[in-house]
Specification:
Blueprint lengths: L15 H13 L12 E5 L2 E4 L4 E4 L2 H4 L8 H13 L11 H13 L6 E6 L2 H16 L3 E5 L8 H6 L17 E4 L14 H17 L4 E6 L15 H12 L2 E5 L23 E4 L10 E6 H4 L15 H16 L2 H22 L3 E7 L2 E8 L3 E2 L1 H13 L2 E2 L1 E3 L5 E4 L7 H20 L1
Parallel strand pairs: 3-14, 5-6, 5-7, 7-8, 8-9
Antiparallel strand pairs: 1-2, 2-3, 4-10, 9-10, 11-12, 12-13, 12-16, 15-16
Helix pairs in contact: 3-10, 4-10, 7-8, 11-13, 12-13
The structure holds pyridoxal-5'-phosphate.
Amino acid sequence: MPVEQRLRLVTAVPGPRSCELAARKAGTVANGVGNVLPAYIVEASGGILVDVDGNQLIDFGSGIAVTTVGNSAPAVVARVRDAVERFTHTCFMVTPYEGYLEVAEHLAALTPGDHSKKSALFNSGAEAVENAVKIARVATGRSAVVCFDHAYHGRTNLTMALTAKDMPYKHGFGPFASEIHRVPMAYPYRWPGDPARVAEEAFAQFESQVHVQVGENQVAAVIIEPIQGEGGFIVPPDGFLPRLAQWCRDHGAVFIADEIQTGFCRTGDWFACDHENVVPDLITTAKGIAGGLPLAAVTGRAELMDAVHIGGLGGTYGGNPIACAAALGAIEEMRSHDLCGRAREIEAVVRDRLQEMAGEYAAIGDVRGRGAMMAVELVAGGRQPAAALTGAVARACHARGLVVLTAGSYGNVLRFLPPLSISDELLHAGLDVIGDAFAEARGS
Ligand SMILES: Cc1ncc(COP(=O)(O)O)c(C=O)c1O
């Protein structure tokens, strides 16, 4: 039965049954595993999550940019059901199956560039990033990796080293992998110089720091999120990514686009690199690829992907047949409902409404993002990060039944990632809640 696409609260959020489950969690789940909003979910579709107390919450989080096609999207469910009845696992490295090949073929066709491409499938985004670095190192015979301020690439040891933020992602978990070099990000809102020259100046800093501190011919790879996710939906100005890609071509380094959060229609294109026709050598994907099932990929130039010896890439579950079936269903949904177009429509609605709110609330210092990946950065007294206010607005949204997430190196960004299957009506209802939450936070 499809869930009625309407916000409906029948108890406080979280309600009493969710609170009972939260008490059970405290006794059995490690404290390190937190919950943004401890409303326990029993059902979901479109833009609505239904909790154990019968509340219908609006979803502006998509499970952190995963359920792009909506929860339990029909083509995902149909293909998963069919696949799970046939077989659940063989391990592609032992006895393979066709679904894996079909996913790799779609990845070759959909990712930027018309060169010959190959893929390898994994379970999580972090695992894909680790493998992209492994491939780049073998292909170049070099070891240094350049990454950026505000980056997020995962929580495994190598990806923690690539991730910028200490708390909560890295704190106490070191020592980290070596040969990782961090350079400034082209962050328009916080760039100290002339706003018109951010791309040029940030690239100049990249070039100079790599030259002085690393050495061009030591660089195996430059890795960047084309729009930074956890770092606060930082959109680099046009010209920055093409310059980096060109630098990599000039110096024999591998340009890795981490499109784990931005990929698969989220930003209004199949991939965020498409916006400026940037063609990465390797691209990492996960999250939206499979409608909620765990799947990730590294896709790239065939000659780079094939540099690794046989048996050098893989893992027990990577490219699991059920996850591959889900990916084929998700891609079918994206194509048949033109979800890239839908992301652009969502951007138009959300940007307008957020800009209206920015006119009303001085704390909204910046409205940014692309497609259905929009955010506001909250500040006080100039551009001082307003993390406490951000938390208060997020909590006010949660109490009113809207799932929103925070982000940003300074914890002062509210980010909005609705599923692309959300209706305009529900989108506006969610934006109304955000307006009310700002009004309450200003009043308090
Ligand atoms: C850009 C980016 N890279 C990597 C990851 C890590 O993915 P996972 O959580 O699946 O390991 C994330 C997760 O948020 C991400 O946003």
